[in-house]
Design a protein that fits this description.
The chain has a single domain, classed as Rossmann fold. It has 6 helices and 10 strands, in the order E-H-E-E-H-E-H-E-H-H-E-E-E-E-H-E. The protein has helices at 11-22, 54-61, 81-97, 119-128, 130-145, 184-193; strands at 2-6, 26-31, 44-48, 66-69, 101-105, 149-154, 157-159, 168-170, 181-183, 203-208. Helix 1 crosses helix 6 (184-193), helix 2 packs across helix 3 (81-97) and helix 3 runs parallel beside helix 5. The chain starts with a strand and ends with a strand.
Length: 209
């Protein structure tokens, strides 16, 4: 499948690219700075652009089989307007191009999932990261209003650990510790699994160890 990955040069995005190739997918990586994506592969196409550019986003979406969004705020304690504006452009471009499958990386501190995230996320991170959470909530609302076949993925704190495949996922799972974590590699593993698993189509799933 041809995959378009926004945020491909980020921590989770790089794992998405590498694992996608291992699974036989072709990848278009939409990045602001190609130098931050030190991956070489014959099936890799790199588009240098900014998600605030609606035209550039639309060009990248055309002809894709699915879109994965792993965009993050450079400073999580502040609002990042480019995140919400960019997501709007992505959704609109997908709707116009007829590309239906969207997998969006959010956060377990968002909406009803907050209470399932453990003490730290419910009572501390929800305040410290309130601006970033608000951005994700706006994006989730926009996604839900769309006609796309979307899946929202809500992890807790991300780590640089290896891919284990030993993680839990579901709409109603709860943290087993006050400070839950999951590796970026495992999040990428779960996101790519949604390309063929229809369990969470038009649903939001938490994923954690």
């Amino acid at each position: 499948m041809n995959l378009l990955i926004f945020g491909a040069s980020g921590g989770t995005g790089r794992h998405l690219v590498e694992q996608a190739f291992a699974q036989g997918h072709g990848v278009t990586a939409f990045v602001r700075d190609p130098a931050r994506l030190p991956i070489s592969h014959p099936d890799l196409r790199i588009i240098r652009g900014d998600v605030s550019d609606a035209g550039g986003v639309a060009e990248s979406v055309a002809g894709q089989g699915a879109v994965l969004v792993a965009l993050g705020a450079p400073i999580p304690v502040r609002h990042y307007p480019a995140l919400t504006e960019g997501l709007m452009h992505i959704v609109e471009a997908m709707e116009r191009a007829g590309v239906r499958r969207l997998i969006y990386l959010s956060f377990i501190g968002v909406r009803e999932s907050r209470r399932a995230g453990g003490f730290f996320i419910e009572y501390i991170a929800s305040r410290l990261l309130r601006h970033s959470i608000a951005d994700h909530e706006e994006n989730e609302a926009r996604i839900r209003r769309s006609g796309l076949d979307w899946t929202i993925v809500r992890p807790p704190k991300l780590t640089d650990g290896s891919r284990t495949g030993a993680y839990r996922h579901g709409e109603a799972i709860r943290a087993r510790s006050p400070f839950p974590t999951i590796s970026r590699a495992d999040v990428a593993d779960f996101m790519l699994a949604q390309l063929t698993d229809r369990t969470y189509v038009r649903k939001a799933a938490a994923v954690m160890h």
